[in-house]
Amino acid sequence: MLPSSNPASFDKSAAYDYLIVGGGAAGLSLAYHLSQEPRLADKTVLLIEPEAKDQNDRTWSFWTAEPHLFEAIVAHEWHRIAFRSPGFEQVIGLGPYRYQMIRGLDFYTFVRQALAANPRFTLLRGTVDELTNTPTGVRAQGSAGTATARYGFDSRPPAVVQNPARHRYLLQHFVGWEVETDADLFDPSVVEFMDFRGPQHREARFIYVLPFGPRRALVEYTLFSETPLPRADYETHIADYLQHTLGLAAGQYRVVAEEAGAIPMTDHPLPARVGPHIVNLGTRGGRAKPSTGYAFRRIQAQSARLVAALAETGQLPADATGDRWQFRLFDTLLLDIMQRRGETTRDIFRQLFERNPVERIFRFLDETTSWADNLRVMNSVSPGPFMRSIGHVLRGRPGKKRKG
Ligand SMILES: Cc1cc2nc3c(=O)[nH]c(=O)nc-3n(C[C@H](O)[C@H](O)[C@H](O)COP(=O)(O)OP(=O)(O)OC[C@H]3O[C@@H](n4cnc5c(N)ncnc54)[C@H](O)[C@@H]3O)c2cc1C
């Protein structure tokens, strides 16, 4: 048995109320939401996670118009973003929205400390190899033995067997350098949200900058495409941006931290509900938005939805996500275009930002727009690429990358 953070209270003979598999963003979010719900104050929770979660392995950025449970650990917040592409550049005030950043390590520490102080929660260090429905609940088997619970929540990375004849498989992949400069250079009040001015190489490629101060920023080279690049290629593009766009020679900045990642962008089915007692969370439950890779806010929304149902009815909600089919269709169409003609993506985003208020774009991406606003959004982009992709969706076959 692997070392446990609280081994004495892992009672193999006891059935927990809730079992959470994986303590990353989604598992810890659900656990924290549960811990904050007074109506579930008597419920026992076992969370099983193999890693110590003591590294800052990622940062989460997201927009929000509402206060949330993690305000205390927001490391930075911005009220304006910039969108740039050839022929169109705009710095946009976010109105009621704020763009926020949370460091992974702050999140893991904050939630794990809160749970450790709560005797109803057991954090166990280990893996779960199998999670199954039983007539009365769930059973998990893994490195720590067997555990049972009434409901199970699974956030292990999904084991996707790709079916490219039916679905689209892209990645949001990126490398970021946190740089420190000798002179004031960044506007700390403006996030460079998407800078598409560089060559696209028949893909969607942009620079993303989170400025933390006039001399410090995270600069990322990001792509929406099928295949990651060699590490050196991302770094060449970041150095190129620093030199040619910001006018920084090699000796005028230092790289103080690095980040890299690849987030799945796919219309492969990732069902959130698995039988009567199991719900999939996070990436496994389709919470990474297929057309953007943003997941953190969707994870919070799912946690809130699950906790509300458990508190109100004692049971899981019939619909574990609240996803609406029309947004799934929009995501699939955009993925199809990105896969076929990646370079068109920047035109679509340019038209979106040129012709819509940012509030509408954010609500559309949050999947909370009305039918009327969905029509306005769709009318703001050139229909050609979408018509062709609608054909692919109707035929049930993804479009192929254009040759030549
Ligand atoms: C570098 C990076 C940056 C990102 N930035 C953003 C961002 O800015 N904004 C945004 O909205 N989204 C972002 N995302 C996407 C998404 O928010 C994250 O991937 C998020 O961590 C997904 O949460 P999750 O719980 O599904 O997965 P994870 O956070 O990866 O958690 C899964 C957990 O399961 C554990 N596990 C694995 N195997 C087992 C097993 N057998 N048994 C038990 N546990 C197991 C793992 O150790 C891990 O802790 C980013 C992703 C990456 C990789």
TrEMBL record:
It holds the Pfam family Lycopene_cycl. It comes from the Bacteria. InterPro entries: FAD/NAD-bd_sf. SUPFAM superfamilies: FAD/NAD(P)-binding domain (SSF51905). This is Lycopene cyclase. It comes from Hymenobacter coccineus. The lineage of its organism: Bacteria, Pseudomonadati, Bacteroidota, Cytophagia, Cytophagales.
